[in-house]
Amino acid sequence: MIKQTIVVRNPEGLHLRPAAVFAEEMAKFNCDVNIRFKKNTVNAKSLLSILSACIVCGSEISIECDGADEQQAIKTAIDLIDSQFKGR
Question: Residue ranges per domain, the chain?
Answer without folding.
Answer: 2-82
